[in-house]
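Blinded run. Sample ID left blank on purpose so nobody reads anything into the name before looking at the predicted structure. Input follows.
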Amino acid sequence: MSAANAKVTALRGAAINLGDAADEFLSTHRVANDNTRRAYASAIDRTIAAVGGRERLLADVADTEIGDALTILWGGCAPATWNRNRAAVSSWLTWCATKKRWAAPSVPADAERRRESVDHTKAVAKSKLERLLSRRDLPLRDKTLYRMLYETAARAFEVLSLNVEDLDLENRRAPLRSKGGDIEWVYWDAGTARLLPRLLRLPNGHPDGPVRTRGPLFLADRRPVPARRPSPEHICPHTERPRLGYDRVRVLMERHLGLDPHQLRHSAATHLGEQKVPLQLIMAKTRHKNPRTAMRYTRPGGEAVAEITSILAPPRRTH
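Blinded prediction complete.
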């Protein structure tokens, strides 16, 4: 394509507004995963509002306006939050410019990624975690969720997206859509397997039978109010209760265990590494694609480091 033709192609997008450009991007395969789409939509919609709203033309927005919007919205947040939202906006604008050939702004160079400090204390010692997950005062739903998060080493949003009909109870596994959009299996063990049948049980005499057979696996405590009723796929047909949300899980886990949901996945990978499980198998379990990313989670925990420190102790006296 000549330079003149490329310029004409770019100008064809001069009349598209921010709202339409965002809608087209959010309908592409790269954000096919529902959770990814929600996260991207939130960041993009908030940025659009900050630079003038959905009706403003994409071509009229300057790079500096994008940078200012990002700074106003997330400049004071943790590096991980800044990087996540910056990446969503950058991915959208890059797609507009390279795939659609629209005249579009870009994230300016001074709004660069920030260094994220890794907290190596996030992994919980296996003995402590077992005590926490075995507490008798934990509600059945929450105990099942926490145990499943640990035994599958899955992300919280992935497990919360599971439906009852997805479960292969006999083989202790279920298919789910991962962060990148792939469909993959996750596996659990005896702890989760013992709890799931109890979680699926319906009250005696329920017209739908003794157990739930379809709908969201993990349910909220209350039925939704009409103004905030989610779409049908997120409502249990047996109880009319909605799917349990991540924000509520985060609050309850802090109250019950003093942990955040990601720590269960982090701890699972660490405990596998401490048992000398090869990195390739740990990556298959956690479904990480990049070994460097997986190695962040397989760093030996404090309990393992304390145990090997005894090797450095002075020799014991024999008399």
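Unblinding after everyone has recorded impressions. The first strand starts at residue 173 and ends at 177.
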